[in-house]
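Before any further analysis, backbone shapes were mapped to integers, which produced the following:

***
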Amino acid sequence: MDLSPLQAAGTKRIDGIIGYDLLSRFAVTVDYEDSVLIIHRDSRVDRSVWGSECRLNLDFRLPYIDARINDSIAGRFRLDTGSGSTIDFNSPFVERNKLIAEDRSKYHQVTAVGIGGGSSGLIGELAALELCEYRVDSVLVNYSTTESGIFF
């Protein structure tokens, strides 16, 4: 697997990707504030201290979760701990739900590269995200404007 597109986007060498087969065997906590990945053996950790559990859907061993945006739009979102943004909306979802306002002065144009190749988009504010039992208002997200490829 050629990881050079991912390496070009960052400053650190990438030797591989830790995936489903390993992570599915453990309870994992990602502590972004302290830059720590904590791997728990299921039998040794008290799940009651973790917070709310969310129903995770697996499709070909890829994790997805259902969420709601802007109080009325339901969506199915793939979890990607390697994404540099809060949420990346693919182009068809953006267009179908008219998520980009006509006045584009409120957005910042971005280009990104990842394991699936390059993409372009607009960074802007999402009014609300409801995920599990939590609601987050005013979230910065990436609205894809890519016309082909993985984010289309």
About this structure: The chain has three helices and nine strands. The mean pLDDT is 79.
